[in-house]
Amino acid sequence: MLGWWCGGYFGAAALHRTRHFAHRYNSSGPAASVEAVEGRSVALPCNVTPPRHDKLYMVFWFRDDQGFPLYSFDVRGRPLSQASHWSSPDTFGPRAFFRTTPSPAELVLEDVRLRDEGAYRCRVDFRHAPTRSYTVQLTVVVLPERPLLLDRWGRPINSTLGPLQEGDHVYLTCRVVGGKPEPAVRWLLEGRVLDEESEQRSGHVVDNRLALRGVSRRLLGAALTCRASNTALADPRQTSVTLDLLLSPLWVRLTVPRDPLEAGRRYTLRCEAAGSRPPATISWFRAGRHVATSQERSGGNVSLSELTLRAGPEDDGGQVACRAHNPRLPAARLEDARTLSVLYAPMVTLRLGPTLSADDVKEGDDVYFECHVAANPRWTRLHWLHDGSPLEHRPASGVIVSNQSLALQRVRRQSAGRYVCAAANTQGEAASQELHFRVKYAPYCEEEGESVVGATRQETLEVWCRVSCDPPALAFHWQFNSSGETAEVAAARFSSNGSASLLRYTVRSELDYGTLLCWARNAVGAQARPCVFQVVAAGRPFPVRNCSLWNQTSSSVEVVCQAGFDGGLAQHFVLVLHSARGARLNLTAATAPRFALAGLQPDQPFWLTVFAVNAKGRSPPVLIEEITLRDPERRTGESSSSNRTAK
Questions:
Q1: Which CATH code of 2.60.40.10, 2.30.29.30, 3.50.50.60, 3.40.50.720 fits the domain covering 148-246?
Q2: If residue 255 lies in a helix (H) or strand (E), which one and from where to where?
Q3: pLDDT tens digit string along 259-313?
Q4: Backbone torsion region of residue 360, taken as left when φ is above 0, otherwise alpha when ψ lies between -120 and 50, otherwise beta
Q5: pTM for the predicted model, two decimal places
Q6: What integer is the mean pLDDT of 320-330?
Q7: What is the fold of 3-141?
Q8: Residues 6+ away with beta carbon under 8 Å from 111
Q9: Which of 87, 266, 386, 491 lies 20 to 30 A from 344 at CA?
Q10: Is there a contact between 160 and 245 (Cβ–Cβ < 8 Å)?
């Protein structure tokens, strides 16, 4: 263990000298006292600052009066940062490390153990100055275990005590095991000390018993804490328990928004109860019968329940009550009640005539609606709405309003929709529920007029025939008409669903240009007028012609051309600007070949290409060559033309 020592700076003689110094230089001042917590770290101070013009050589640490060092710090012949450290493996081992900064220097001891307690001496050797010695008394504090809370029967308690009822007595024991020095054990309520008296028991156990008599609701959620402390170097060991109480409701209050009520309107009645824990359950009773609440919520020990009530004549003189009770305390309940006074406005119900079937009405039928009104006093005004718009009495249009009935003669598909009747008396006005009225009708073509379809020889077209109807179409059929001759289209050539049919039509000769007709049929009947598609010969458009340049400036110009034949289909026009650096600009005109170019560079030649485009492709391009816009500042006697025509 001391091989490094005997063969180093001192050799065998140095060992004798070190033992001699260990007894001769006991201290250079009063002993320092240092307290450490077991398992943590501690720093033992030692002043190693050398006298002026001197140099630190070695530092030794000894325990009590032992002559052999526990730790050495050797600076001889090397910089302070490269000093040699040695720690006795039988004592500190890797747990100790000596550092010279901050001042004073410190022997840092990690993972302090109880056996480390004792007196330590630091011996400091300099090159010339006499040796110094400092004494440090280390006291090791052993923290107690975390307090254990026990109920009156000695059973461990977790984080919550209860639930208790108001007036219950609470008996608790706080047991703390271990600790050096012996810990002080206290009971605290919300941080306030309740009990500091504890009893010592065998086996290093300290008990503190607490008695709380007649707990009140103010202790709900209060924290009872047992705290054990035996040093200021560490936070106290403590365990807390929260008091949980069952509480009865303190009061219940029913609120009716107004008195009297008006029948047919919705009101929200509120019932609020407070003081119960868990929050009170609120039950509603209407005319003695239990009813469901529309909305209920709670927060803290306050419960709020809302009952949405649509008042009616039957409620006049009836009673509404709300009852609050703690579900954990069946006997704890409170009730509040109100007697209702009701004035009732009309209550309106709309029905289709009893002889009619709502699913069998079709275009051309006569129908009628009945508006049933219960009101006190009798209604004074009644009106009708269709999709939110008023319906007036118009016999010429087939709309007949009579007393509480509405008749519709020869209904059309536009007659379908939402119907409402509304009535008013001196107490107010009310509307019926919406009656969704359905009118079945035969198919009709979604697109009005004829559709033009362009095709070239041997081209197969996809022609869509889309219809509107209720119920969905059951079948479609197609015809082709050319030069006064009509032919049925085979069913294998088209497919159908409930609202559309797709025909794949191939033009093979001039005889295949003509008119395609499409009809649909549903359960109501057949389509009266067919969907019409004109199949015409179509090809790519002809090129534009007579292109001219107008309104030229140094940075802009207008290009105007005449359109050629459109190929039998709608066409649009495209202009492409070319320069020495490639295509720079693309413009599209939807209706006519007229383009406005701006932001051009003067004195830079460019070329223009104009062509027409339709569904079959694009025309041959027309080229306008070698266009140069002149900068006015560079023009010297040049004459300008108003336009230029492309060739």
A1: 2.60.40.10
A2: strand 251-255
A3: 888 877 888 999 999 988 888 889 999 988 888 765 677 777 788 999 988 888 8
A4: alpha
A5: 0.47
A6: 90
A7: Immunoglobulin-like (2.60.40)
A8: 39, 40, 41, 95
A9: 386
A10: no
